[in-house]
Structures are given as structure tokens and as C-alpha cells.
Design goal:
Pfam families: HDOD (PF08668)
Largest sheet: none
InterPro entries: HDOD, RNase_Y/CdgJ
Number of helices: 17
Structural class: mainly alpha
Distance between the termini: 31 Å
Order of helices and strands: HHHHHHHHHHHHHHHHH
Protein name: HDOD domain-containing protein
CATH architecture of the largest domain: Orthogonal Bundle
Number of domains: 2
Length: 340
């Protein structure tokens, strides 16, 4: 594997989740809790508030809530897995064997399109992914009206080294994150995967402005949610009756422990040290540029998912407050990513 380079604090928010109201009310509850009269005057959301809204939406959390001892048991088990990342990694599948070969080929500065074409041709899923990517509007000339790209060598040259790296990393991670068993994990995993793709894209777009490596940022975005997938599998195992944990304290602890686990699995899988460090430090004060890109990319991706699901309003300061023009431009890019 050496190729792989708190909270909705207001009581009103808890009541909204308990009553089954959409997370869209989170912004309003946040404003009321801070003495703000209208949603338009809300303060920007904190990272913990976004995590709480995102988790409750992913889990479709509704009463009855799992009791506190169950919450503690899940967090204790997640902490134990973080101390033994081999056990945590065993709860997610490995990547296809061909991917490391391809990534090694892409590490060389003199990328050999013919050799890559030969390797890719052995896996028809990868062939289809390369053609699909090369024919997206983002790569074709804006007013292209000719036939689609149908030569593997041409597709590889069009995508370039970084484009191929990102495509292969995305293909490698899809089964790790999105294909999970268990009632809750099966529902949440495809959504987590979509958010991971958006987070990776956002982090890679933000990285140059922060003087960070775009591909490292992309890898970190794909990897940071692996621990969260493990956490959802634990919830499935320890909450067989369907009563889910979703208290503020639990959500904050779960995201913190899941990030630690992601960091340690990344190290176990021989990710580059800067990527591992960025995952662990994202959101911390004074973090390195790569961790800053990852933290902001993850924030934008989670907010984009909630807005697109009509759980939050895109114009609310709860969503857009504190975001500069580059971040807002990336936020808009994420909305169109699947169709662009």
C-alpha cells in the first residue's frame, strides 16, 4: 500500500432533532440561542455545529435515542480501535491490486502513456472510468463538438499526471468507503463517499492558495472519512434495536475518535507523512497549510451536502458566514461537480 501518498449547542436544536424536524432548523436554533432575532443575522456555524448537523442527517437520527451507556461503549470501542489500527482497517476492504501498480507508474515525472494504457486495459472498470473522466466538460474544450475521446492514450494525455492520480485514487477508495453492510452503514456510506469526493476536490482546489500540494490534499480528503465509516459500522453492531446515539457529546467524541482512527489507518497503509499529519491536525489552530486546506474543504463539502439535501439554506450566514471569495467559489463548484 506504499502508493497512497461541537455542536448544535442550543436546546432548541436538540428538540428539533428529537421532534424529527429537518436540520435546516439548525441555523435558526443557533441564532435564537445567541440572541439573534432572524436567521439572516446568524453567526457562522462552528465546525462542531456542522459535524452535529451532518451526523444527524446521515444517521436520520430520530427518537428514541440510545442511552448514555451505549454512547460511551461505542466511543470506548472506537478509541480502542484507534490504538489498534490493524483491527480498524480490517473493517474496511482493501483496494484492487492493480491500483498500486498504476500509482507507481504515475510517480515518475516522465509518465509513459503507452505503459499506463497497457496496465489500464487489464481492468475494464478502470477503462470506463478513464473514458468517462476524459469526456467530462471540465477536460474537453468549452465548445467541443467533435467525437468523444475514445483512445486510451489520448485520454491519459488529456487528463495528465495529476488528473490520472486523482482518478485512480478515487476509484481505489470508492469500495473502501461506499460499500458497507449493516442497516445504518449501508444508508450512510454512499453519502459519506459523496462527501469524501467533494472534500477531496475542494481541498485540492484550495491547496495552491495555501501553498500546499494539491494531490496530497486530494488524498487526505478521500482518506479522512475512513474512520467515520468504521464508526458507523460500530453503531450498527452495538445498536441492534435501531435506537441511535446522537447527543452533542457523543457526536463530538465520535468525530474526534474517527479522525484519530483515519490518521492511524493512513499511517498503517503507508500514506505520505504530510497526508497523515494533515488528517490528524485538520481543524486545529496553527495547523500546517495542508491541514488548513483539508479542514476548509471538509467544511465546504459537508455544508454542500446539507444544502443540496435541503437541510440548510445556501444563503444563510450559518452556511456562508466567514467564507472568503475563494471558498465561496469552491462551494459553488461542489454543487455542480457531479454534472461538470
Amino acid at each position: 500500500m506504499g502508493w497512497l501518498d461541537k455542536l448544535l449547542g442550543a436546546q432548541q436544536s436538540d428538540k428539533a432533532a428529537a421532534d424529527g424536524e429537518p436540520v435546516r432548523q439548525a441555523g435558526v436554533a443557533h441564532g435564537v440561542a445567541h440572541g439573534v432575532e432572524s436567521a439572516g443575522d446568524q453567526a457562522p456555524a462552528t465546525g462542531a455545529e456542522i459535524d452535529a448537523a451532518y451526523f444527524r442527517w446521515l444517521a436520520a437520527a430520530r427518537p428514541p435515542r440510545a442511552p448514555a451507556p451505549v454512547e460511551l461503549r461505542i466511543l470506548d470501542e472506537l478509541a480502542r480501535l484507534a490504538q489498534s489500527p490493524v483491527a480498524g482497517a480490517a473493517l474496511v476492504p482493501r483496494v484492487p491490486e492493480i491500483i498500486p501498480q498504476l500509482m507507481r507508474s504515475l510517480q515518475a515525472d516522465d509518465m509513459n502513456a503507452a505503459e499506463l494504457s497497457r496496465l489500464l486495459s487489464a481492468d475494464m472498470v478502470l477503462v470506463a472510468e478513464v473514458y468517462r473522466e476524459a469526456n467530462r466538460p471540465a477536460y474537453l474544450p468549452r465548445y467541443h463538438s467533435g467525437p468523444p475521446v475514445n483512445s486510451m492514450a489520448a485520454a491519459i494525455m488529456l487528463l495528465g499526471q495529476n488528473g490520472m492520480r486523482m482518478l485512480l485514487a478515487r476509484v481505489a477508495f470508492r469500495p473502501i468507503v461506499s460499500m458497507q453492510g449493516g442497516r445504518l452503514a449501508k444508508r450512510a456510506a454512499p453519502l459519506i463517499w459523496r462527501q469524501s469526493e467533494k472534500s477531496a476536490l475542494a481541498a485540492s482546489l484550495l491547496a495552491p492558495g495555501l501553498r500546499a500540494n494539491p494531490f496530497d490534499a486530494y488524498l487526505a480528503g478521500l482518506m479522512e472519512n475512513v474512520g467515520l465509516v468504521v464508526a458507523f459500522r460500530l453503531v450498527d453492531q452495538l445498536c441492534p434495536d435501531g435506537a441511535l446515539p446522537y447527543s452533542d457529546q457523543f457526536v463530538g467524541g465520535l468525530f474526534a475518535q474517527a479522525r484519530v482512527l483515519s490518521t492511524r489507518i493512513a499511517a498503517l497503509w503507508d500514506f505520505p507523512p504530510p497526508v497523515c499529519e494533515a488528517i490528524g491536525a485538520a481543524g486545529q489552530s496553527g495547523a500546517a497549510p495542508l491541514a488548513q486546506a483539508l479542514a476548509l474543504g471538509g467544511r465546504l463539502a459537508r455544508l454542500r451536502m446539507l444544502v443540496d439535501a435541503a437541510e440548510l439554506d445556501a444563503g444563510d450566514a450559518f452556511v456562508t458566514g466567514g467564507l472568503g471569495e475563494p471558498a465561496l467559489a469552491v462551494f459553488e463548484k461542489l454543487r455542480d461537480d457531479e454534472d461538470s
